[in-house]
Amino acid sequence: MAPTESRLSIGASVLGASIDVIRRLDTAGSELTDDDPARVTVLVVGVIHGDEQAGLEVVGELLDMAPGDLPANVDLYLMPALNVDGLARNVRQNANGVDLNRNFPYEWGPIAQPGNWQYAGPSSASEPETRAMVAFVEDLRPDLTVWFHQDAFSIAPSTGPDRFVREEYARLTGLPLEGVTGGTYTGVAATWQRRTYPDDTAFIVELGGSLAPGEALTHARAILSVSQMLP
Fold this sequence. Notes:
alpha/beta; Aminopeptidase; single chain
């Protein structure tokens, strides 16, 4: 592991698997203090739905970048998977059958019943993965968070005060900026972040069903590029 990398566990899944985050800094960036106004903290979540795994490739590209390729002011936190149990079983939900992206503590609602693809859990933040992420974000307060999904091929939301950041991401990647449809959207992780911390930027990137050659690198570079637009 390079001197500019460190690994931490933010908690454990239902089945006890560690939820890991890798922190990466440019050599110059590692000299920034936590309260330096030039620091931009970026969090990338590769997998929250265990059967939507293309985001792992974007995380992999960011992990493979030479330290000198990272902007000097970026403090980069890479979470390959929040839903580590779902990823291991290639299923959408966690080991309790809960859709983690319906379980966050903002406008949570009792969606469906166990066994349904959008089952939101018995209560808000009922799942250990959700609670671990809430605590981590509350402590880290990332300036930018990107949550990867599949396969609606879009960036969401399409409105809001930080739309200019998402517009640039859309331009760089070729994904359209539009709302996601086709389900009930309460207890959503990115929405929880935006509503709880309105000064921070969090959005969803819905990749396609599979990635074209070079597409993961395009998204990795887009994340770093738009990070420089934040105050």
